[in-house]
Amino acid sequence: xxxFLMYAKDIIVEFGGLKALNNFDINIEEKEIKGLIGPNGAGxxxxxNVLTGVYKSTKGEIVFDNERIDGFMPHMIAGKGIARTFQNxxxxxxxxxxxxxxxxxxxxxxxxxxxxxxxxxxxKCEEKDNIQIAEKLLMFVGLIxxxxxxxxxxxxxxxxxxxxxxxxxxxxxxxxxxxxCAGMNPEENNELIELMEKINKLGITILLIEHNMQVIMNIxxxxxxxxxxxxxxxxxPSEIQNNDKVVEAYLGKER
Amino acid sequence: xxxxxxxxxxxxxxxxxxxxPYFFNGYYIRLINIDGIYVLLTLGLLIVTGFTGQIxxxxxxxxxxxxxxxxxxxxxxxxxxxxxxxxxxxxxxxxGLILGFPTLRLKGHYLAxxxxxxxxxxxxxxxxxxxxxxxxxxxxxxxxxxxFGIKINTEIRYYYLILILCILSIIFVYxxxxxxxxxxxxxxxxxxxxxxxxxxxxxxxxMLAFALSGFLGGIAGSxxxxxxxxxxxxxFTFLESCKILVMLFIGGSTSVPGAIIGASLVSILPEVxxxxxxxxxxxxALALIFMMIFVPDGIVSLFNRRKINND
Lengths: 255, 311
Hints:
A: alpha/beta; Rossmann fold; 2 domains; 10 helices; B: 14 helices
């Protein structure tokens, strides 16, 4: 019996003849911040897509919270408490900030057609809760002053924070962040680091894909390194920094 | 304050609508009644195309299914009108569910082609099941609706019946739009994958959207059947579906007012243009083309633009 919140074993993902992931293993402990790094095209985003059910793995098993989730439909996986963000913020541009966060509450609410048409007590309660929780989350990520701003008028940094708020609206057990620091300036990066630590303190496990080594080395409890679909190293940040294979993957072989 | 303004506006429109029939003769009231039926049809399409983003040419089929179901029930079983109306809606909704099934695998244009096929099949079935529908001869002697002892047999009475059903449907659509279901639908319109990642079962909600669209279409069909007193499969063609889709896009494809304005404009405009005699259809078609070119987001967008400029 393991005390891992999530583990994946022998994951193989093939696109035609190409193996995007080859016998990939990863173990994520509860309440840790796990870094997943690797050069471009290593298969990091592919792994997140497999985890969330967007791609089907050719082989392998994924266990989350003592339950096998590989082969589940994406919406069921989301319902289990796995939330993610995208490399490019993916929001509804014609809605306001709070409107987008409320959409993230879908799994946590139960209003059905009958409730919606007859405005039952349950619907009224849930709508009130939704707004309250969404406001709390906007406060949490520091966007409460942009509550009624349309997403299409937002700068990219704001969108990214909003996407995190929406992901948190699912009450996730694990949050998958796909390059949250890409295209951010150093100041925004620091804010993001703070935010991730704050999220982690709430007891939410984080799987972080990132190219910014400073961010990774600063906040991750452990790191897994991928290259061409193979895991080449796993361990604490200090171990990874001195790992020959990792240095080789990033910088090339020493002559 | 803004909300108060909107409420006043709604009240004003309601009063106008209630006293409207006393200022027009039967011919115009008939036009408005037909318009009301189209409003119901367009509202149905709004749910599946406007909110959920699935182009559907099936509205005429739902219209036909609702019409024949309601008419046959009231002819053969003598059930009260309101029950027939509901049955028309429910049977059409059931067909909507069936039609929603291919959405598991099909998207966009491919799904649109399936809905075209569905409409054509339904019309052919209506035409050829002669023992039930009397086929090309048409279904005659559909009784007048009787509601709580009131016989709905004049244009004005029909006007109020259709008005009430339109108002109920508008509330129905608004309530869906502003609920968890409506949010799920617009997320699916944005992107299927995004919806799934947020825990929305996009397949289920697409089926639901088709069913709701079918329900409103069926209600409209039932009203149409009893209003006309005579049904013919030729009323429920693919072209009719196109017309309803045009109504939605002319008005503005994502909002309730847009659907109402579009339905009214497209159904009343040809009658207004009658004075052009032989050319009226040509002018009508040109007008629609120009509207699509110059107001691609629909007529409602004109109001929205002004609102933004004012801010």
